[in-house]
Design goal:
The chain has 281 residues and is of the alpha/beta class. It has eleven helices and eleven strands. The protein has helices at residues 3-16, 22-34, 38-43, 51-65, 70-74, 98-106, 123-132, 143-156, 195-198, 214-222, 242-250, and strands at 76-79, 82-85, 107-108, 113-117, 135-140, 160-164, 175-180, 227-236, 254-260, 266-272, 278-279. The radius of gyration is 21 Å and the shape is elongated.
């Protein structure tokens, strides 16, 4: 079977399974099966698939048709222009999380010491370590997630200290910036999520307790003592939680602000322990 025929058949299979962008997804899976970039498919539509290539491609099509996220099949996801390895042990990095990176890079002076909580794949800590040339540390309660993060740091040449711990337990500061994208889905809402998320992404990285704010309450209490004077906290939350997050941090933090994502939804918290650090407006 040629690459052109395989691509057409894959597109039809994924389309019938209700997969969005069926042709683009089929092309990604076919290129992955061939160990090639997608451009190869269009430059060489006459390529005859070997038996092994066809077996791999068929398995990938079946997995995606069954709901398995594309990123867990190819084991990679782009974030801030870099390719990160992912596995079912970590949450797949989302484009909206790049808003956090934008605001971190806007802080002046640039943070020299960064702590990333609930690091998962390490995409936030690694990106900030590379972009800011900062000393970065990152924590996660999952040893499996930290193994993925360490692999990403090594592959991308980032110097990040990874610590297996519950949130920030045992971590010593001070830090100029603390970042966090914690589990924030209410426990009872997990079953209502898309199957790609509900059935495949790690529950540990999703479940935020009864109202989704269990970790956020701890962050409000435990992160501040780890910040240097003039330090900042940046964190992502669900848009429906904006009001409660803002009230929670206004009790003990200063310069509390909520920022919207590209879709106009409240998505990012910024809070300070005092007013000594400036922000680019």
């Amino acid at each position: 079977m040629t690459a052109a025929t395989a691509l057409q058949q894959g597109t039809e299979i994924l389309g019938k399974a209700g997969v969005a962008d069926a042709r683009a997804t089929a092309a990604i899976l076919l290129a992955h099966a061939l160990g090639r970039e997608r451009v190869y498919l269009y430059a060489h539509p006459e390529h005859e698939l070997s038996t092994v290539e066809w077996i791999h491609y068929g398995r990938y099509l079946h997995e995606r048709s069954s709901g398995k996220p594309l990123q867990y099949i190819t084991r990679r996801q782009e974030f801030w222009g870099r390719e990160f390895r992912v596995s079912p042990a970590v949450l797949i990095p989302r484009p909206e999380t790049e808003l956090l990176i934008e605001h971190a890079l806007a802080l002046k002076p640039g943070p020299a010491r960064v702590l990333d909580l609930c690091t998962g794949s390490g995409c936030i800590a690694i990106t900030l370590a590379l972009e800011l040339k900062a000393h970065a540390a990152a924590t996660d309660v999952s040893a499996e997630a930290l193994a993925v993060a360490r692999g990403n740091a090594a592959a991308l040449g980032a110097d990040v200290e990874f610590i297996e711990t519950d949130l920030a337990a045992g971590v010593e500061g001070p830090f100029d910036l603390i970042t966090v994208n914690p589990p924030y889905v209410p426990s009872g809402a997990i079953e209502t999520l898309m199957r790609e998320v509900r059935d495949f992404e790690p529950r540990l990285a999703l479940d935020g307790g009864a109202d989704g704010l269990a970790l956020w309450r701890r962050i409000a209490a435990e992160a501040r003592p780890l910040l240097a004077p003039g330090g900042w906290l940046l964190g992502e939350f669900d848009p429906s939680q904006a009001g409660e997050i803002e009230r929670l941090f206004q009790q003990r933090w200063q310069d509390v602000a909520i920022f919207e994502d590209l879709a106009g939804r409240p998505r990012l918290l910024r809070a300070a322990c005092n007013q000594e650090t400036e922000v680019l407006r």
